[in-house]
């Protein structure tokens, strides 16, 4: 295996050299691109040895202050001795962007050149100090064939452009803001362009440009609206203005992640830019707005103030996810927004904590940095910021942000610097709160009620079980938001391992709605009565509490079923659903969540050991119980909302249709055929697939025919192919379809990633056999994309004995001399 050495946070050392300016020249050719990099160096200490990172590069020449030098290589780094305190270093390298299927560094995507440098991709462009605490001013000259690549883009402002011999042309860009190399970007291609403008609060006119594939300009309109709204929102909410004359977004189809916040030139996965009613769902529209906002917000939280080292990734990502969540609740927010955020934590992040990749939001050890762009760093990181925001209040949090920028604008800093700014601006002590950055794992919060002589109170205790990376845990300060039904709300601040809270005198024991709004990323243990849970499910004022109460009822029920027993929770759950379906409709988004049967993945989180067959059967049984017992009332509600032209109604319709797919077979078919937009069409198709209806083949075929020219839509088709029952035996055929492409991570993630993450057929002998062939092939093409898919397999110890053996053999078989560093790190941890 290509092992990378493990790096530790504790070993951080300031760089031996600083680079104040970097002049880059790219002579773009499809397979032989030449990069000339001229750095202005100064010593940052006494060490005369400059050690530059580089990977997959062909070195052409090195000159120091105009004189050729012969460098040596040590542990993959280029080592140059620099005698003077400052010097000019010129390095010429050659790279092959067409052969770059890993999509890191400079590569070609669908006929255009583009870059991805975060985290450590710049070292695939030239030898450099590829670390975020080296900040330089960049000037970039891009040279390419004019007919093939009429648009030449890089960071900052355009300073010069012109014609060259042989049908070539050039453009020179200058970015006045010093930046780390992970924020460098270059794009060359032939795009359609959507333009607009924005005037900042202080009167600066900013040109806004979105570059998309030919013929798809109108599909960028929604992204443009989201961008303008984001710019305004950041001014209004945090007083943060944009700082260049233009802001560019390029949408590309080949991209490993969601998007990238390169200074002034964001590069996006096309699925987070392109949308119209016929091809994108309501959820797609919301995701686009959230990601556009996220990348734009990075201009301050990430770019103007960046990370000292990659262990601090949550400094920019946790904070920026929190900011995009705040934005989303203003832009398109519904009661389901927060419920979905909580679901990401409770299914994906809790699973990460329970497996071999457990790490604190500020990891202590990393081999391949790309493996740490995780739900822990991003989403749990955002939950930590959310708690801080709650603790300090809106004004206090804003004061902390203001101080953070005042102190650190233009610097590369740490998570501690951020929390210190928050503490100092508010004159509070946050030293215990910093535990959230150090400690991994999911705190289990146990709630006990005290009810004596009319006095009601709570005894709260917390305990974080040991994780694979960390045995010792301590208590963390956490906010426990509650509602006493009919008596109002409160937030209890739990500081210690155990604390008692008196909540007053009551005539009757009140009903407690716990963890309102998912106030802390914890697991709740609370032996509340089934009747109280049913009451919460129907009546709590907090949406998260209502959905959570339903889940807690179902958890009891499914636990009993797994033991071959019955449980009264079934009747209570059905009765509550009946009540919800027959009362006047007040919140369709929320009802859409309540009328979903939890996924097998969500159910896996309820138990330490995964009885996969039992969970699949339980889920089927829940679905059939709802159909049989509630068909009439659910169908009435379906009839009531199905033609309403409104987002919430569409969400509710889709949930109901999914529940009723089997008895409504013809209705599903009609809904699909008569769909007025993609939300309706995809909802009907997904319902057909979920119910494994006889007509699902015909509908999938129709869908493929209608949308064969739109790769983003075909990814929906590939996802359904990955999810459906009988997926495995159809894989060969699906992979031969023109919609599939081994080299494109959107395609492979849609089909193979979805299969691994959601399809129980993955966990069969045939499934493991198939993966043992597919994963090495994928890993050879794109290590990062492959590593991002295997998470569920790493949980192998939680499965039954037969699957444990099968998965262990699969994972061991993946460890070969050809395995990438990305996949190798995960396998090493999982098999330890
Ligand atoms: N900073 C980007 C974002 O959060 C993520 C890019 C990470 N890319 C990677 N290859 N690790 O928006
Ligand atoms: Zn980000």
UniProtKB/TrEMBL annotation:
Lineage runs: Bacteria, Pseudomonadati, Pseudomonadota, Gammaproteobacteria, Enterobacterales
Query: Which top EC class applies here?
Result: hydrolase
Biological role stated in the UniProt entry:
Aminopeptidase N is involved in the degradation of intracellular peptides generated by protein breakdown during normal growth as well as in response to nutrient starvation.
Query: What CDD domains is this protein classified in?
Result: M1_APN
Q: Family assignment?
A: Belongs to the peptidase M1 family.
Q: Which reaction(s) does the protein catalyse, per the Swiss-Prot or TrEMBL entry?
A: Release of an N-terminal amino acid, Xaa-|-Yaa- from a peptide, amide or arylamide. Xaa is preferably Ala, but may be most amino acids including Pro (slow action). When a terminal hydrophobic residue is followed by a prolyl residue, the two may be released as an intact Xaa-Pro dipeptide
Domain Peptidase M1 alanyl aminopeptidase Ig-like fold spans what residues? 441-525
Keyword list (alphabetical) reads:
Aminopeptidase, Hydrolase, Metal-binding, Metalloprotease, Protease, Zinc
Which GO BP annotation is one of this protein's? proteolysis
Q: Which residues form the Peptidase M1 membrane alanine aminopeptidase domain?
A: 223-433
Q: Which domain of life is it from?
A: Bacteria
Q: Which GO terms describe its molecular function?
A: alanyl aminopeptidase activity; metallopeptidase activity; zinc ion binding
Q: Which InterPro entries match?
A: Aminopeptidase_N-like_N, Aminopeptidase_N-like_N_sf, PepN_Ig-like_sf, Peptidase_M1, Peptidase_M1_dom, Peptidase_M1_pepN, Peptidase_M1_pepN_C, Peptidase_M1_pepN_C_sf
EC annotation from Swiss-Prot or TrEMBL: 3.4.11.2
Residue ranges of domain Aminopeptidase N-like N-terminal in the record: 52-183
Which cofactors does this protein require?
Zn(2+)
Please state what the protein is called. Aminopeptidase N
Residues in Peptidase M1 alanyl aminopeptidase C-terminal domain copies: 530-832
Q: Which organism is it from?
A: Gallaecimonas pentaromativorans
């Amino acid at each position: 295996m290509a092992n990378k050495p493990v790096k530790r946070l504790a070993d951080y050392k300031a760089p031996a050299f600083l680079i104040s300016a970097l002049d880059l020249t790219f002579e773009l050719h499809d397979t032989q691109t030449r990069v000339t990099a001229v750095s202005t160096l100064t010593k940052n200490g006494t060490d005369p040895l400059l050690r530059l990172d580089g990977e997959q590069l062909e070195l052409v020449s090195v000159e120091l202050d105009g004189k050729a030098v012969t460098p040596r290589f040590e542990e993959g780094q280029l080592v140059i001795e620099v005698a003077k305190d400052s010097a000019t270093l010129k390095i010429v390298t050659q790279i092959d962007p067409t052969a770059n299927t890993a999509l890191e560094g400079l590569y070609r995507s669908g006929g255009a050149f583009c870059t991805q440098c975060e985290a450590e991709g710049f070292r695939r462009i030239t030898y450099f100090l590829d670390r975020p605490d080296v900040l330089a001013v960049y000037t970039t000259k891009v040279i390419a064939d004019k007919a093939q690549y009429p648009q030449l883009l890089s960071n900052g402002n355009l300073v010069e452009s012109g014609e060259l011999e042989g049908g070539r042309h050039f453009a020179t860009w200058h970015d006045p803001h010093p930046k780390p190399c992970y924020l460098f970007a270059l794009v060359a291609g032939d795009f359609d362009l959507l333009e607009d403008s924005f005037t900042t609060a202080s009167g600066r006119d900013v040109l806004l440009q979105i570059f998309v594939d030919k013929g798809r300009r109108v599909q960028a309109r929604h992204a443009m609206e989201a961008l303008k709204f984001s710019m305004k929102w950041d001014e209004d909410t945090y007083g943060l203005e944009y700082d260049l004359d233009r802001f560019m977004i390029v949408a590309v189809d080949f991209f490993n992640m969601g998007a990238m916040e390169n200074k002034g030139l964001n590069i996006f996965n096309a699925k987070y830019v392109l949308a119209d009613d016929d091809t994108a769902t309501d959820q797609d529209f919301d995701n686009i707005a959230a990601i556009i906002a996220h990348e734009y917000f990075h201009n301050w939280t990430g770019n103007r103030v960046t990370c000292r080292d990659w262990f601090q990734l949550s400094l920019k990502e946790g904070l920026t996810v929190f900011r995009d969540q705040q934005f989303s609740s203003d832009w398109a927010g519904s009661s389901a927004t927060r419920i979905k955020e909580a679901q990401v934590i409770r299914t994906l992040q809790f699973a990460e904590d329970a497996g071999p990749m457990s790490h604190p939001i500020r990891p202590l050890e990393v081999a391949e940095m790309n493996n740490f762009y995780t739900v822990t760093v991003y989403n749990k990181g955002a939950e930590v910021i959310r708690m801080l925001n709650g603790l300090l209040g809106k004004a206090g949090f804003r004061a902390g942000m203001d101080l953070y920028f005042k102190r650190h604008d233009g610097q590369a800093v740490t998570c501690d610097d951020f929390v210190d700014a928050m503490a100092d601006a508010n004159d509070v002590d946050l030293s215990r709160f910093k535990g959230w950055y150090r400690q991994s794992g999911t705190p289990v919060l146990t709630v006990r009620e005290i009810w004596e002589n009319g006095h009601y109170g709570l005894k709260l205790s917390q305990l974080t079980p040991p994780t694979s990376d960390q045995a010792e845990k301590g208590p963390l300060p956490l906010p426990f938001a509650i509602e006493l039904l009919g008596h109002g709300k409160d937030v209890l601040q739990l500081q210690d391992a155990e604390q008692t809270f008196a909540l007053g005198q009551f005539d009757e024991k009140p009903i407690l709605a716990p963890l309102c709004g998912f106030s802390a990323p914890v697991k709740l243990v609370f032996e509340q009565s089934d009747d109280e849970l049913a009451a919460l499910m129907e009546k709590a004022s907090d949406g998260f509490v209502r959905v959570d109460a339903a889940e807690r009822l179902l958890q009891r029920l499914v636990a009993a079923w797994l033991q071959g027993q019955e449980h009264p929770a079934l009747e209570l759950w059905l009765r509550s659903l009946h009540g919800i379906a027959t009362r006047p409709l007040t919140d369709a988004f929320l009802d859409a969540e309540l009328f979903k049967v939890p996924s097998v993945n969500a159910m896996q989180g309820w138990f330490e050991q995964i009885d996969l067959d039992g969970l699949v059967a339980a889920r089927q049984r829940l679905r059939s119980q709802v159909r049989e017992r509630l068909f009439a009332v659910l169908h009435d509600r379906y009839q009531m909302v199905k033609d309403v032209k409104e987002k919430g109604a569409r969400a509710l319709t889709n949930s109901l249709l999914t529940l009723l797919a089997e008895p409504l077979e013809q209705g599903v078919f009609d809904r699909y055929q008569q769909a007025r937009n993609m939300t309706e069409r995809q909802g009907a198709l997904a319902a057909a697939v979920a119910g494994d209806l006889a007509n699902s083949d015909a509908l999938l075929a129709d869908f493929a025919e209608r949308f064969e020219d739109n790769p983003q839509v075909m990814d929906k088709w590939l996802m359904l192919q990955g999810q459906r029952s009988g997926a495995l035996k159809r894989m060969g055929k699906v992979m031969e379809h023109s919609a599939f492409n081994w080299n494109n991570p959107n395609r492979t993630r849609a089909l193979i990633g979805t299969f691994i993450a959601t399809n129980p057929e993955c966990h069969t002998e045939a499934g493991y056999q198939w993966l043992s062939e597919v994963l090495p092939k994928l890993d050879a093409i794109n290590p990062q994309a492959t590593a991002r898919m295997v998470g569920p397999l790493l949980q192998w110890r939680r499965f039954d004995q037969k699957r444990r053996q099968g998965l262990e053999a699969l994972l061991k078989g993946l460890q070969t001399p050809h395995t990438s560093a990305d996949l190798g790190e995960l396998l090493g941890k999982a098999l330890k």
